[in-house]
Amino acid sequence: MTDFNYGSIKQGLDRDELLSRMQDNLSDFRYGHCLRVEKVSRALAAEYDGDVNRAGLAGLLHDYAKERDDQEFIDTIKKHDLDPDLLNYNNAIWHGIVGAEIIKDELGIYDEDVLNAIRRHTVGSTHMTQDDKCVFVADFIEPNRDFPGIDEARKYAEKSLDAAVEFELKHSVQHLVDKNRTIYPATFVSYNYWIAKGDL
Ligand SMILES: [Fe+2]
Ligand SMILES: [Fe+2]
C-alpha cells in the first residue's frame, strides 16, 4: 500500500477510499492521468520546497469533477453563490473552480491550500503558492502528455517552476486563440502577471 500521508491534511483521510471514489466518477483514462499528476506534483513539491502531501493530494483530485454534466456545475455555482460570470463558461473552467466545491461536498476535504491548487489548475492566478504551481505544471507535463512544446515545458520545469508556469500560461492562451475559443478573464490576468516576470 502506498503510504502517502494525506491523514496529515485531514485526519482519517484514506487514500484507498479516495481512489475508489475517483474510479466511480472517472473514466480509466482520466483516473490514470490523475495518478500520474499526483506523482509528478509530489516530485515537483519535493524539488521546489512545496508541501509534498498537499501538492500530491491536489494533484490526485484536480480533475475529480471533470466528467460531470454541465447541469451539475450550473447547480453547484448557484448553490454555493459562486461568481455568476462562471455561467458564461464551460467545463474547461468549471471543473477546477466549481470542482473544488464538489470535492468539499462529496469528499469532505476543506483544506483551502489543497482546494486552491485545484481551483487554480485551470486558470492559474497572480497569487500561486508553490503547491498551486506544482499541480499546474504537473498537469501539463505528466509522462503521458504529448503535444508540440512538451519537451520545452519539461525542460522549463527542470530549470525553474516559475518559468514552467509562465510557459504553460502562454501556451494555453495561444492554444485558445488558435482555436477561436473564449478566454476566461482570470486566465488573462494570470497570463499578464506571469509573462511580465520575464522568466522565459
Ligand atoms: Fe483539469
Ligand atoms: Fe488534468
TrEMBL record:
SMART domains in UniProt: HDc (SM00471)
GO molecular function: bis(5'-nucleosyl)-tetraphosphatase (symmetrical) activity; metal ion binding; nucleotide binding
Keywords: Hydrolase, Iron, Metal-binding, Nucleotide-binding
Listed InterPro entries: Diverse_Catalytic_Enzymes, HD/PDEase_dom, HD_domain, HDIG_dom, YqeK
Descriptive protein name: bis(5'-nucleosyl)-tetraphosphatase (symmetrical)
Nucleotide-binding as UniProt keyword: yes
EC number: 3.6.1.41
Pfam families in the record: HD
Domain HD: 30-144
Alphabetical list of NCBIfam families matching this protein: bis(5'-nucleosyl)-tetraphosphatase (symmetrical) YqeK, HDIG
Matching PROSITE patterns: HD
Extent of the signal sequence: none
Reaction(s) catalysed (UniProt annotation): P(1),P(4)-bis(5'-adenosyl) tetraphosphate + H2O = 2 ADP + 2 H(+)
The organism's place on the tree of life at top rank: Bacteria
Key word Nucleotide-binding present: yes
